[in-house]
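Contributing new complexes? Match this layout with flavin-adenine dinucleotide.
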Amino acid sequence: MDVCMNFAEEVSQWIADNCPDEMFTPMPVIEEVWGGRKEQFVNADAKVWLERVAEQGWLAPSWPKEYGGAGLDSDQVKTLKNTFKTLGCRPALMSLGIWMMGPTIMEFGNDEQKLRFLPDIAAGKTRWCQGYSEPGAGSDLASLSCKAELDTETNEYVVSGQKVWTSYADKSDYLFCLVRTDFNASKHNGISVLLIDMESQGVSTQPIRLISGASHFCEVFLDQVRVPAANLLGEINHGWSIAKRMLEHERKMMGQSDLTDNYNPVLSDFAKRYQGDENGRIADLALRDRIANNEIDIAALDLTNLRIKEEIKAGEFPIASTTLKYAMTLAYQDKFELLLEILGNKGLGWEDLQSFLTDEERAAREFAFSKIQTIGGGTSEIQLNIIAKRLLGLPD
Ligand SMILES: Cc1cc2nc3c(=O)[nH]c(=O)nc-3n(C[C@H](O)[C@H](O)[C@H](O)COP(=O)(O)OP(=O)(O)OC[C@H]3O[C@@H](n4cnc5c(N)ncnc54)[C@H](O)[C@@H]3O)c2cc1C
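Output block (do not edit by hand):
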């Protein structure tokens, strides 16, 4: 306990010495930082903040130091996160690379790959996207057909095919790409994972617009793209288990309520502010009841999440990430339905946001975004199938 207290003090002091003043203010959407070679910092202080946090290894605090992390244990990571949150500083970076690809490369990559890719991910210098879904392969992912053939003369894979719904592909530096390397094997057995530089000749992207107004999705076209064999992750034709492991990381990430601390409105505070405060309690009894239920659901899921982390520490990788993803994404939708109700016309900000406060301006877009959370990372129906088969042992 004392060790954690000392560490919390150390972190607080470091933040006081290093966090630029502006990074203590709520973050407008356009100032989010996702890193990578194409990052354009809207706020110059965000760049300073990113570099300082990265230098501490605190963007990926649990990763070993040799891979750009800080080698912290899980209690220290918790203390670090809580201290950042309590002091109200902005997250320095949002990163699929840190949440999903990095841990998978750490587990399946060889030493050369780990040293080549992980430090840049941990420093926010490269941004990654996930090349899984294809026009003919979504829920039934293993039927993917993007093809890779080894050119034995140059020791390169030649990749041709199309990916779809690839989040942030147009802004990313690397594609974590599932390819079919054996068309004769059964569908789960002929898949491999290639780590593809988005600058490679033959890679192109086309953005797709979402109902939230943003267009973080892309189609990715791969036309005779040459990928060094050194970028094959794991064994040839054994990529399916790697693909599933990264999905577990993705679902674990989606099963957290405070992934980025970026926009995490406390409904009870909003309700008191916008719908009336009666002696420190939400005035409307019915609303109070609904908010309490939602906050209890999310708190219970967060505690379950902590339990899962302990299980992972003990060497297990439980299926609970699927259950949590399923439950948390529904609770998240419920939360943003409630938020819009509470805010009334202050929750309708979309464009021309001058008349909205920073914590009002994101509500409508987050509400719309919550609707797609039960699809991304595998739909809710697919999560229920997995739970039925793998957790409950029900027949196919
Ligand atoms: C926010 C978001 C981000 C995403 N980011 C990425 C990304 O970065 N990279 C990437 O590769 N993909 C990404 N996707 C794509 C996502 O993984 C797919 O949309 C998802 O797996 C569903 O596939 P599909 O869209 O082809 O739907 P389909 O598979 O065609 O499914 C259509 C409907 O049928 C249901 N269904 C299908 N099969 C079954 C079954 N066996 N049992 C019961 N119901 C079934 C589904 O639940 C769904 O309701 C993203 C999607 C979203 C929404």
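Reviewers usually confirm one structural detail per submission. For this one: The chain has a mean pLDDT of 91.
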